[in-house]
Amino acid sequence: MPVNKDSYILFQQHKTCVLIPTYNNAGTLANVINSVLEYTDQVIVVNDGATDNTKEILATYSHIHIVNNERNRGKGFALRAGIKEAAKLGYDYAISIDSDGQHYAYDLPKFLKRVAETPNVLIIGARNMNQENVPGKSSFGNRFSNFWFALETGIKLPDTQSGYRLYPVKELAKSIYFTRKYEFEIEVIVRAAWSGLKVMSIPVSVYYPPADERVSHFRPFKDFTRISILNTVLVLITFLWIKPRNFFRGFFKKEAWQNAMRSLFVNPQESNHLKAASIGFGVFMGIVPVWGFQLAIGVPLALLFRLNKALFIIAANISIFPFTAFVLLASVLTGNWLLGIHSILPDWHHLTLTDVKHAGFAFFLGGAILAIVAGAIAYLLTFIILLLTRPKRFSAKLGR
Asked: What whole-number distance in Å separates Cα of residue 265 and Cα of residue 279?
């Protein structure tokens, strides 16, 4: 039995193992395994085609589960194999820990205590990235990753690149993943969040050796390129599928309608004018041709003018898929009408740079005018509806 009996019991209770992916880290591997064995004997090591003496080191441990990849496939592939193996062995969770000695085993119980409070969760161990010896590429890469994760999921985390994690393996093993290098650690948490799993973080300690002692298989140019391509794809999926999906899921929920109606018709602290302005401004920002930045621009302005943020966001969704195509077409038609252009599309056989400029100007002009008109109509209709249906005491108290 491990030295830490309390930790041993926690691992048993929560059906949790420790997953160690490794590739050519023979210098630190034994120390990492030994430190983990002080807390649990439920250990899976994935040897990702190591060419050093990793196999000989692993052969000295008869009581841990070993998965051998015949050739090096990448950290992501090793994690995928380990997650599937953990699920097959009957575990509910696997805590991944790097084999380079960067993580401390004494943080393992923190993951188990958190999962006891919040089951069915993916937990990331957040490192202190401001300490000595942290590589500049790691600090930049982490901020870069945090930004894109927040954009893709709406969840803000302090460290999305840490390899010290607790994975709910039964849920994740069912998915088919497309990445197999370092970028898998981004794909898995984004898709977990999209699927409805809770993703959160806990603080953990980290050790970064001096640069001349550090062993890293991260290839800055190639791996940053792969990560950038992945984030580009994930952002496209976010705005073309995930956000519209989430909107329509909420749109048909009774609770969502109740909250929207309560926000619209009740709240005696807001006048009819303010509520109507919130919806009108939302419609305007949803149509105005600043695609991809509507909320980034609109939310701060809504806060500045103290509008109802919930009503603004609901109204701004007028341009989500599949309504996007209608908004684009209406913008083009409006612009062409204003400029006296009779054709909807340019002549592709004789297309010139001047034609492209005119078409672009028509689209932006038409989109801007359409946004103003639609926003004004939305304001007037909302104001009239509220004037006729909202309890008189609210209007009397705040003024119309």
From this structure: 13
For residue 60, the 8-state DSSP code is T
Inter-residue contact 95 to 16 (CB < 8 Å): yes
Range of 288's domain? 253-398
Instruction: Note the pLDDT of residue 293.
Output: 76
Q: Answer whether residue 246 is part of any domain.
A: no
User: Same domain, yes or no, for 176 and 286?
Assistant: no
Please count the structural domains in the chain: 2
pTM: 0.68
Distance CA 15, CA 94 (A): 9
CATH number for the domain spanning 33: value is: 3.90.550.10
* Residues present in the chain in total: 400
Q: Looking at the structure, do residues 272 and 315 belong to the same domain, yes or no?
A: yes
For the stretch 164-183, pLDDT in tens is 999 999 999 999 999 999 89
Query: Does 223 share its domain with 323?
Result: no
* 43 and 64 Cβ atoms separated by less than 8 Å: yes
User: Do 199 and 192 form a contact (C-beta atoms < 8 A)?
Assistant: yes
Token digits of residue 367: 């989109």
Q: How far apart are the first and last CA of the chain?
A: 73
Range in 97-106, 107-116, 222-231, 351-360 with the lowest mean pLDDT: 351-360
Same domain, 267 and 232: no
Identify whether the C-beta of residue 38 lies closer than 8 Å to the C-beta of residue 2: yes
